Each structure stands twice: as C-alpha cells, then as structure tokens.
Amino acid sequence: MLWYAIQTYTGREEKLAEMIRRIVPAECIGECFVPYFEQLHCWHQQNQIRVLRLFPGYIFFSTDDIGRLFQWLKQVPAMSKVLTAGAFEFTPMYDGEAEFLLQMMDSDHIVRLTYVATDGRNHVSYLSGPLEKCEDHIQDYQFRKRFAQVRLRIAGREKAARVGIILNDDVRRETAYGKVEAPVRTPEKYELPALKRPAADLAPGDRVAVIGGAFEGNVAVINQIRKNDVRISVHMFGRDIFVEVPAINIRKVE
After folding, report:
1. Which one, of 170, 141, 137, lies nearest residue 152 by Cα?
2. From CA 169, how far away is CA 35, in angstroms rounded?
3. Cα 138 to Cα 131: distance, rounded to the nearest angstrom
4. Of 201, 209, 198, 200, whose CA–CA distance to 232 is shortest?
C-alpha cells in the first residue's frame, strides 16, 4: 500500500479520521490515524504525562487505490465541499517515510517517552526508546522541558517535531496522566515503558562510569550483574564500597 498525508484544521484531526474510518470501506483504505507523542511535565514533585498531537493538522492513511478512495471521501461530510471544489490534494509520502514513522510509534500510534541518560553536564550518554531509531535526526534537547527537537521528512517536506524524554530523576517519582488528546483509554497510573538494559555487553571486572543516582560521577568496577541491577565496587574514603545500582545508571568505560 502507498501512504499519503491529509492536511486539515488543527484540533479536528481525530474527528475527521474517525469519519473516514467509519464511512470508507475497509477494502479501500488500510490504516488511517493521527500520530501522538508523550511529554512529561513535573509539577509539585509529581510526574504528569501528557499525550499530544505529533504533527498538528495532519492525518496519515494508506491505500492501494487512491482514485476509488477519492470517490468515497466525497461522502465524508467534512471533506465533500473541498473535494468537489478541487481545493484539496493528497500528499504522497516518499519511500521509507511512513515506515520510519511507524517504527517510532506503538500500536496506539503514540511515540512513547525515551529514557535519556546524561553525564551530569547535559551530554547524552545513553538512549532507550523511540529516539534510538532517529538519533541522527535530533537537533536539540530541552532537558528542563523534557523533550528533544527532531527533524523528520514527511511527504517530502522537513517537519519539526517534539519527542518526549524522561530522565533518571523522574523514574522513581509518582507518575499519572494529564492532558490526553489521543482517543485511548488511560489507566489510573502511568506505567513507565520497559527500558532496554544498557548492561547487555557488560561483564564482571569491567570498569564503568556511574551516570545517575547517588554515586553519579564515580568510576567503578562491576562485581556482579543481576536482572535489573548491577553490583559495583566504588573506591571511596580510602576503601572499596560495594553497592547495587540500576543497570541504566552505568555505562562502560573504554
């Protein structure tokens, strides 16, 4: 199937997508969706996750027969006038654009939070989440506002988008949903996505830098690797101290 983008009024994207899915036969259209992203806001020592539109004013859909689909879209009340007047165009997406976008999203078409570890000086040392797939597209990090600015090509045009990030200080705070623009049912408590363990290539005896937590900034030696934690020895106060730290809080020192 070929992918296309429809540009519409901001704030009416989901309503139009729902009407298209309801009126157009399934054999004429594949997926039809509005992409969203998660962004974290810290308020009074509590994390609040907001689910916002990734590309305001855009709907994405796939079809094998754009001519037949065009005829069906004339029956969608919100589009019939502009289609009849010829004031509307489908914008085809280039090879790889749709696949790249789909890889970043989950089944609800939401780009979830990316865990970002830093060295304490705002230099990123590790990513776990959707941003892993588009690291070369990252323009800037806004750590205080918890998002990364990325540039993506959509329908042949460069678009700026925000992708939400979560830092080590946020992981242990209570987290709940806030403003949710996506038409998904949200649980009472937000469950952080499973983070890929950066310790997969580590072994006992390796020297590592601690990049988060109480021992951040220290260089240590791995004593034992467990399921989610790593036992390390840190040289402090003239002796070696053994402590357990989350695997996401260390990185190997070459």
Report:
1. 137
2. 28
3. 8
4. 209
Residue with tokens 């890929």: 196
Which residues, in sequence order, are CB contacts of 37 under 8 Å at separation 6+? 51, 52, 53, 54, 110, 111, 161, 162, 163, 164
Domains of the chain are 2-180 (no CATH), 207-252 (2.30.30.30)
pLDDT tens for the chain, residues 1 to 254: 889 888 888 888 898 899 889 899 999 999 999 999 999 998 777 889 999 999 998 899 999 988 888 888 878 776 655 554 444 566 888 878 888 888 899 999 999 999 888 766 777 877 888 998 888 889 999 999 999 999 988 877 888 999 999 987 887 788 888 899 999 888 877 877 766 655 556 788 888 888 777 788 889 998 888 766 788 898 877 788 888 887 777 878 87
Is the full-model pTM beyond 0.85? no
Strand 157-166 and strand 114-118: the pairing is parallel
Distance of CA 43 to the CA centre of its chain: 21
> Which token pair is 107?
């089944």
Instruction: Go through 134-149 and write b for each residue having 16 or more CB atoms within 10 A of its CB, e for each that does not.
Output: beebbeebeeeebbbe
Structure tokens at 26: 């399934």
